[in-house]
Design brief:
Layout: H1 15-43, H2 51-78, E1 80-81, E2 84-85, H3 86-90
Antiparallel strand pairs: 1-2
Helix pairs in contact: 1-2
Length: 97
């Protein structure tokens, strides 16, 4: 008689965490491409200024900062039940295992 294997349930990633991870990838890609474009412009002998590249990258990081702040505020609210936080309960105890 073979023992039945129990499948470990996959923990679903919340939509907000998935959104933040995808936005992280987009921001990093935008930053990388901004630097690559600036490097290409300088290597090609472009004699103008490049503030539009800095603006593009800054706008992406600004939007990311706002999203991250909202995500962490949401996570903080979710990890509080009845006014008691996880850290308050674990103070003086070994809650890690």
């Amino acid at each position: 008689m073979k023992g039945k294997r129990r499948r470990a349930k996959k923990k679903r990633v919340s939509f907000s965490k998935l959104l933040l991870l995808l936005e992280s990838g987009i921001v990093l890609y935008t930053t990388y491409e901004g630097f690559a474009l600036a490097k290409f412009a300088v290597a090609s002998g472009f004699m103008g200024t490049l503030p539009w590249i800095a603006t593009m990258v800054t706008a992406a990081w600004g939007a990311y900062g706002t999203s991250a702040a909202c995500y962490y505020a949401k996570a903080k609210a979710e990890n509080t039940a009845g006014g008691v936080t996880y850290e308050t309960v674990c103070r003086g105890q070994d809650c890690e295992g």
